[in-house]
Every structure is written in structure tokens, then in C-alpha cells.
Write a structure and sequence with these properties.
The chain has about 300 residues and is an alpha/beta fold. It contains twelve helices and eight strands. The relative contact order is 0.16.
Length: about 300
Amino acid sequence: MEKIEHKYLEINGLKHHFAETGSDSSPAVVFLHGFPEIWYSWRHQMVAVAKAGFRAIAPDFRGYGLSEPKPKLEKTTFMDLDADLLALLDALSLSKVYLVGKDFGAFVITIFSLLHKDRVLGFVTMGVPFMLPTLPSYHLLPEGFYISRFQEPGRAEADFGRLDAKTVVKNIYIMFSKTEIPIAHENQEIMDIVEPSTPLPSWFTEEDLAAYGDLYENSGFKTAMQIPYRSLGAEDFGISDPKVDVPALLIMGEKDYLLNFPGIEEYIRGGAAKSLVPNLEIIFMPEGNHFVQEQSPDEVNEIILNFLKSHI
């Protein structure tokens, strides 16, 4: 197995952690995690692309895992993540890269691809299509919708604070692996949706859970509530024409709960996504859930490598 190394860089005044494997002289693929993930969620893909002759780089976003948070973390924005990614590429002397993002990592790819088109060779998103961070249509969903709850200052912190970090991650992985959108009852907290006896998904091991638990024990969940949840729809990116023409790929699980968000499936299947990304290819995985890269790593690795090799 290719050895994954852990490194740190001072970026925009904060100590940032990133994992890396592969030759410095190889084309670079930068992996951007979502929530409740971390660099570790790309462990399978990093090794696969490195073996295929690419350089794999997976940062922890600021305030996640081993990367430092902003001193006033409640002011963390998506534009901060865009600036961090740009500074990382500059620090590593990478003029152009491939980007692979999952969940809200896809929002960062969208912003970066629109603001820094000359730095992007192509991109892959999973679980979330190419789109700017926007608020879902809350009026169509019950009060207990998990994003609504996560956006309430202090509520998620109090909910999560009853449990250790490992249990919080376990509960979120279980909820987000289902087809249904997580929605709590009126007098129920989000963590209480999952029965304590519910087993982990078969593809997610106790070792994996321990790795995530340790990393979130270090970082906590405060930045994670700010980015993505409390920043959705809160920023003006100054983008008047949200269209890119680089090679692009969307991998979606047919059983991803996100497809039940109002308007998302129509956006993907109805052609709106392709109108903004004309070179977009869309692949649906019949049994895939929100965590396709961990659930079916061999299949996802093959899809990613086919994309990279087709656009090298």
C-alpha cells in the first residue's frame, strides 16, 4: 500500500494539515471532504490514484480534524475555504490540479472553479452536484429538518455535547447512509433519531469510527456547524455567470438521501446542472448512498481513474 504522509503548512495565518501520497512530479489530485468527514474519508481513493501515477493531496478544512480553526470561528466562510485552497496550491507550487469533492466539498469546488478557472484541470463531485451554497427550500420540510436544527446557534452544540465525538460521528454516518432525510420530531433532538443499538453500516468499521472520533475529539464540531450549515446562503460570491467548461463528473448514489431534497433530483436529471457545466458526465450508482467513496471504494476508484486518465 502507498504510504500516506501527514504534513502541515501555515496558510492564511492558520496551521493547516493535509495528507499526501504519490510523486511530487505527478499530476495532482486534491480531495476535499464533507461533513462528518475529514481527510480520512479519502483513504481508499488516495492510495488508488497514487498507484495509478497521480499525486493525491487531502487537506482538512480549517477547523476540521488537525487544521486550526479561525479565532472567531463563527465568522468562518466558504470564501475562507476558497482562499485556503488557493494558498495551498500556491504553497505546493501547483499551477493546475484536478479536484475531487464530496458533500459540501462540492460547494468549495464550485466556488473555486468559477473564481480560479485557470487552476482547474477538471473536477469530480459526489453527493452534491456543481452548485453554489444555497439554502434548501425549508418551507417544504418539517421543523425538525436536520439542517434547520444545525443552524440554530447552540442547539447542535448542546445536542452533540451529551455524547462523545465518536458516538456523534456514528449517529451521523447512520443517518446520512439512509435514503430518508433526517428529520426529528417536535420534541426530539437530532442525535435521538438513532437508537443506541443501531449497528454501523457494514462498510464502516470500528477502526474507521475510531479514526473519525479521534479527529473530531481534537477539532470539535463548532466549525462544522458554521461551515457548511450556518453559512448556507449567507455569502455573496460576486459571480454573475456560474458556468464552467472544464471536464467534470458527478457521482451520485441512487439511494442518497440528498436526492429527496426539494429540487435536487430535477436539477441533476432535468438538465440544469449540465447547462452550467456543459462537459459534465453524470453517473448514478444503483445501490449507492451518500458515502459512495467509502461504501464502494473499488467501483468509485475505477470511475475516478477513468475520468482522470481520459482528461490528462
